[in-house]
Design goal:
This protein is mainly beta. It contains no helices and 41 strands. The strands form 7 sheets. The chain has a 17-stranded antiparallel sheet that branches. It has a 5-stranded mixed sheet with strand order 9-15-14-11-12, with no helix packed on it. It is elongated and about 125 Å long.
Length: 486
């Protein structure tokens, strides 16, 4: 049974309580009889239309304050029952019903409303298309209820907090867009002028089968963290690549927004993907995969709700290009003052010896060695580990804290990651000495009269970088931004 709302009419109160007679004696003073306020209100529910049969229900609380009542049904009939059921004659018409109630003090209150025999029973039906898809998902909702009349109201609730109420029959069908993935339950509630209401519900599945997002920024202090004040890189081209038969193919492209952010929605999952950016001239990568190149590591997407974040930090450089180098030489060699090596420690068995003091390198430690002076006779090996000795006067910094300054005897770290070496190697050639350079796979002879400077040596992806600097020989293999002969 579907209760209908009330249409409240007039309400009046009549006080017929007699004035109490004054006692002839002053003591004791009589107590005036007090009664709780009285209020009439009710609603109706149509039980049947042929014949037109209605039940009337008081709505003034579970314990009425009145002691008697009277219903006038608008057709000359009345009742004093608490919840009467009345059958109207045929053909039915609209009737004005009145409820009057009295309390124990004979105070009364009256309420009226109209009942309409032509309120059809509501059977709401709705369809939606499409009911499943990827965001942003625009869905058309249609009311297909069998009996639709003027005087109805339609209230759509879309399940995402948005709703709309419509009073014109010709505008009752609507569309709505879902911008976030999820399962939503949209509903239509139809009400007639008798204030009867019924609802229908339908589910909508807005999907994103995979999300890959990230941010590009200027990592000014090269700590791989987006710090306050560091600038975003907007308008940079980002590609989503998919591996097909061992070949990486771009499948989507986008530009970073004003916050340096990008996002891809993967509609098909079950494959292997990676992110690649167009590195602009004058920048190098401070974060990323391998030797900090401008692609991310590959990842498999195999669940519909998997999300990945791939950020790229950048640093400005006066050098525009990277070059693969192999260098052999005899003569004097040094690492320049101001060079550094940074890495994140993996495992618990790394250590550094500075000023004959051994410092343990623990898992997740952010480690750095800064060269305070030119370093001669040093050996450095960087790959998935680090081995170095005789580095000279350096600063040892762990997790941003300066632990020691002085001569570094040895560094051993079996497992490192996210490392970066910003080293300048200087080879001072001598007469009749041998110095040759393989630069981008091209053989080059270096003039023995010139000093050779190789800037910003970085390990190659997957390969080892070795630097051996002593009085007799030099060997370097890695990537460099630039070299020059002075």
């Amino acid at each position: 049974m579907n209760p209908i709302g009330v249409i409240t009419g007039s309400s009046t109160t009549n006080d017929t309580t007699p004035t109490p007679t004054q006692p002839t004696q002053v003591t004791p003073t009589p107590t005036l009889k007090k009664c709780p306020p009285v209020h009439a209100s009710f609603t109706t529910s149509i039980l049947d239309y042929d014949p037109f049969q209605v039940t009337f229900i008081e709505t003034n609380g579970t314990v009425p304050s009145h002691v008697r009542r009277r219903w006038d049904f608008g057709d000359g009939n009345s009742s004093t029952e608490e919840r009467p059921v009345h059958t109207y004659a045929s053909p039915p018409k609209p009737y004005t019903v009145t409820l009057t109630v009295w309390n124990a003090c004979n105070e009364s209150n009256t309420s009226t409303l109209q009942v309409y025999p032509d309120c059809n029973r509501i059977v709401p039906e709705i369809v939606a298309y499409p009911r499943i898809g990827t965001v942003p998902l625009r869905v058309s909702f249609t009311d297909t209820s069998p009996v639709i009349k003027d005087g109805y109201t339609w209230k759509w609730a879309f399940g995402d907090g948005e709703m709309i109420e419509i009073t014109e029959r010709t505008k009752r069908n609507v569309s709505h867009t879902y911008y976030k993935p999820g399962i939503y339950f949209a509903s239509l509630t139809i009400s007639n002028r008798c204030r009867q209401s019924q609802s229908a519900i339908i589910s909508i599945n807005a999907q994103v089968k995979g999300t890959i997002s990230g941010r590009l920024w200027l990592d000014e202090n090269v700590n791989e963290t987006i710090d306050p004040g560091e600038s975003n890189l907007s308008g940079w081209q980002i590609y989503l690549e998919h591996e097909e038969d061992g070949v990486w193919k771009p499948i989507q492209a986008t530009l970073t927004d004003s916050d340096g952010r990008y996002q891809f929605s993967i509609l098909d999952y079950g494959g292997v993907y990676r992110i690649r950016e167009d590195l602009k001239p004058g920048f190098w990568i401070t974060t990323g995969y391998g030797d900090r190149c401008n692609i991310s590591e590959s990842f498999a997407l195999f669940e519909s709700d998997m999300q990945f974040t791939k950020n790229f930090g950048h640093k400005k450089s006066e050098f525009k290009n990277f070059h693969d180098i192999t260098l052999t030489s005899s003569g004097n060699a040094t690492i320049s003052k101001g060079s550094f090596i940074q890495w994140v420690q993996r495992g618990m068995n790394g250590y550094a010896i500075v000023n004959e003091t051994r410092y343990e390198l623990r898992n997740e430690d952010r480690c750095a060695i800064y060269f305070n002076e030119k370093s001669r006779n040093a050996h450095i090996s960087l790959a998935g580990d680090i081995h170095a000795d005789n580095l000279g006067n350096v600063s040892l910094v762990i997790n941003g804290i300066l632990l020691d300054n002085g001569f570094c005897h040895e560094i051993v770290s079996p497992m490192i990651e996210r490392y970066h070496s910003d080293l300048d190697a200087i080879i001072e050639t001598e007469k009749n000495s041998f110095c040759s350079l393989i630069w981008d796979r091209n053989y080059t002879t270096v003039d023995w009269k010139k000093e050779l400077v190789i800037h910003d040596i970085i390990p190659q992806e997957v390969k080892r970088m070795n630097i051996t600097l002593d009085m007799n020989s030099v060997f370097i293999h890695g990537r460099a931004r630039a070299f020059e002969q002075q």
